[in-house]
User: Fold this.
Amino acid sequence: MFAVLVTVYFLPHNDLTVDGFSFSALKTRHKRPITSPITTTTKLHDSNSGGFFAKFVNEIQEKSTEQTKSNLPPHPSYSRDYQPNKSVINIPSSPLPSHTTTVSNTLPNGFSYCILPNASPSGRFEAHLQVFTGSSSELQHQQGLAHLTEHVAYMGSRKRERLFGTGSQTNAYTDFHHTVFYASCPVDIPDGQGYTNSVFNGGNAGKGKMVGLAFDALAEVMEASCEDSRLEKERQAVLSEMTMVNTIEYRVECQILSTLHRENRLAKRFPIGKEDLIKSWTREDVVEFHRTHYRPDNVLLYVVGDVDIPDVERYIREKFGGLSAEKHGAELKEDQREKAESFAREVTRTVKSEQSWHFPPTVHEWSEKGERCRDESESSYDLHLQNRYDMDDETLNNLPEVSLPTGGAIRPHVFKHELLQSFSLHLFAKRRIRPIVTVEDFVASIARRIVLAAMQIRLNVSARGESPPFTFVEFNQLDSAREGCAVCSLDLMAEPARWREAVELAVGEIKRLGLYGLTISEVERYGGACLTDAAQVAAQGDRISHSDQLGYLMETVSCGHAFMSPEQSYIQTEKALQSLTLEQVNEEARILCEHIVGLADGEEPIGGPVVAIGCGPKDNASADPCDKDALIDTLVKAANREVYPEEDIIVPRSLVSEEDLNASIEVQKPEWRSGSFTDGTPDTPADKVTTPLTLRRLSNGIRVGVTASDAESQRGHLRLVAPGGRMGEKRLGFAPGAAALGARTMQEGGAFGCWTREQVELFCVDHLLMVEINCNDEFITLDFVFPTTEVGNIGYGDELKAGINGCEAVLQVVREIVRGFKWEADALGRAKASFHSTYDGLYKNLEGMSAEKIIGEMTGGDQSFVSVGHEEIDAVTLDEAKHAVMSQLLPSEIEVSMVGDFDTKEALDLVLKYLGTIPADANEEFLAKAPNADQAVRSGSGAVAPTYTVPPLPLPARQLDFELEDPDPRAIAYVSGAAPNSWGFLAGGGNLADQIQSSDKNPSTFDGQRRGHPLFARCALLLISEIVNRRLFSNVREKRQLTYDANFKFTGYEQIGGGFFLCTVTASKEKAQEAMEACKETLEALVSSQPISNDNLESAKRVVVNRHEGEMRTTRYLSELMSGLQLDAVPKKGPLSLTDFNAMVQAITVKDLQLALAALDVTNNLYTAIGKTILPKDYVEGKDGSPALTRGPVGGTRGGPLTG
Assistant:
């Protein structure tokens, strides 16, 4: 059950997230945000005049084009014939309202901007410069040039360097449809930066404004000088990036995108480009691309944050008003202009011109009923790259569609690879993006959300049978500006031997939805979720973060939707739900599923193809392997399966009856006790609410921390931690992996009390609860996300029947998990299948395998620190899994931290009622049966040091080499050594702070006080990590040009004494050894030739403090910080770790860090490792059916950009 809990959170940047089925899987799966109907217009324009960009066009057309005259084809905004959205939007009489504070305008040179004041976080802003050119605009000889140009323009900016040390974050990324440069900055220039004069303050005296520095950096990108030295540095960085991103997940995504977009440019214009071309380009090539596309009339600047609009507009005029498209055009040669003009003429026949200039220049074969969309023009220009070209992956030129007897068509593709362990299916239908600008559009979008949420739950329930055929399944439809279409997708994963069963079940469920639609109770359930979430976002208002607001604004503008405030969106959602009918919802269900239903005999097929990609192991020993014919046959068979309407399940309104609860209160008589701590904080009172945290214990021993936070309106986070984890599993004598498998079994199960798993699951869905259960080296953790308002409501308006409070609902679930959880054999089976798949995937992943092996070597093979292997997985029984988990869930040992937008006293009363009535001896019987029960670590011992420690580091340290069979060349290197845990405790005993104090030959009284603070070691390690990472970037990437990415981190244990630091660097196989040595040299320089400077420290302090303050605005982060405050198992962690954090960071000195590095001894006893790919045995390139190396959009996410 808990693996299928669903939330329908309509956040500004991701208004439909159906999270469930497998939490761990979802963390690695794609999540493209569905475009919300919560949408944008500006206060400078009439809300009835169409989409956001159309308003730019109307304004621009009123200006004289003489001011922006250029030898290049003008931006479409300058063409009086160009009418964006003309063929798509027919403005009816019921437009949606517009956001009232958004301002947009266009400078005389064509430079457009949009400003959205936003309050959270205060004192900061974000600026994103969007260039309407990405990889899809590249010519044949330019593949990858958009990305390289981004690197050169961004990294070559001298003014960008002024942002260093100011607490700013800045970066850039390239995608199919655009290139974006961004800066997230404080509003005011920090003291000590030397920029407080009027030059950086709009001509005014006083404190300087960061907006001027940020705009300087972005403006310089538009006029990049493209120096030869910078080109060479970025060429090497991009080539390293090609190697780094080329994971098997990445290659699968390449196959998916190539097949999905076979009919247009996207299949052959991946942002990473072609390696041979990247190696060949000169400065002139980069300048040509830059001057062609980086023009003021081809960009849009977004500014969101705590800003003053007139000030920002003044800076925009000052910094960007002097840019000139004519100047750029004059630098191009005649033949270059002709090529650009030829391409621009063809763009008029694409979605970029016809619907939104934000889209790539593509056409699509729509998977919709009606005439099939094809490019029938007589132009000889091969805009959509359907011809064969040099450097093409021939796989892309051999993806024919198969016509079905029913009249429909399937475009099948099967991809097999040595590194794949599971079968996966990716089934698509491409549809036009439907702009949401009217009330009617909005109602349809709400209906579509409800359908998608219901479908996901149905699939999840199907996956929770006794022997489910798939291990992951997701059905969704998302608007994708980067692809210029809406993509309806079915993604599933299954065991290779059961691929047909998985496909048939999932496709059958979609057919059922398309034919019979939803039940009334489903519409009520998911409609209520929509309204609850809209209310939460409305309560958040302008406290939604700048980054979320900006991301949503960009996506909304791109797709042509209206942009409403959260309050306006809530009002429209409530009205829509009051008028929404079952027939309207089921009509959306029919549209969403028509591509599947149309495959069946006797049904009307869609006009375009259904795209199907099957992926699986190359050497599959299954008697029923998947090939193209088998895939098509299975899809058609599944579409012809007979299906029946969905049956409703009775869902409880409450999991705990009032009678049972009152009886428990009478027996247990729960009371509050004072809280106690290991950091020197005095005991807290049992009868008073304290600030900023209320920390107490219940009479049954449960430690409780509660704090109110309105950072996430009407939402909360609860974390339950039980010390022990896999270390406790080992100490108590349970089988290796028993606790880890037990935690996953809990996640996969969910029945308790008199309720079945399905009933509990739908209770959680109704109450918008999300649950994630994990077991790591140190703890078993249960994380809950919940609303803090009344949820599970039925009906709307006058017909509303209120449910229970979300705080009460989550505490009911926690209570039943601790005291009455039912352990099911089928849940253990699913847990084992998940662990087997994870383990196989780990050892087919270069990074994962190498990291696993080096940690294994450094811990002497201790099984508590490495993944659970196949033999251990199979050996664990249900009883062992149950006992390993429940023996750690003892009231006297666990701690519950609860953060949210609630009244603290009311939350405490609910905690007392539900958790205080858990018997004090609950689960003691499981501990008593543990093989080593007498060695259990119990609270009250007054421990001043960790009970568990990492094993002694085997010496002498050594070089390790690992190999992975993979035809694509890749390498990764590591440098690692011993380190303390987060609180400074060392594996051999003692504490880092004590070592520093004893090594200081002349410490002052203040030095001793500072280093004696319980938070000192934690803050020192955070600062060291930040400084080392900056040094690695400067030396290994910038100076030595050996890698795209190198990073340094500590393992950060809390309960376990000791740990490790790990320096990771990706590089080519030829440069892996050199890159590893460069990392070692960087560490050595920190304690010798280039010690930490005051500038290094001050810059790191700003980053650490800003990161902490930013994350403190999330309930999850705060609940994680609160976990362990009252645990004896985590010495030194207490309330001071929250209240004194910023002060301690600011107090640390350069000398502290230099002494800390000396104590860490980062130059001796270092383990080093290099993992490399090798050709598979008997591999013959081009003769084994393997496609040539294909590199697509970076990352394992369909929809992820290429970050520069």
About this structure: Confidence is low (pLDDT under 50) at residues 3-93, 196-206, 1183-1200. Residues 2-26+401-639 form a domain with the Cytochrome Bc1 Complex; Chain A, domain 1 fold (CATH 3.30.830.10). DSSP finds 39 helices and 27 strands in the chain. Residues 405 and 601 are 9 Å apart (CA to CA).
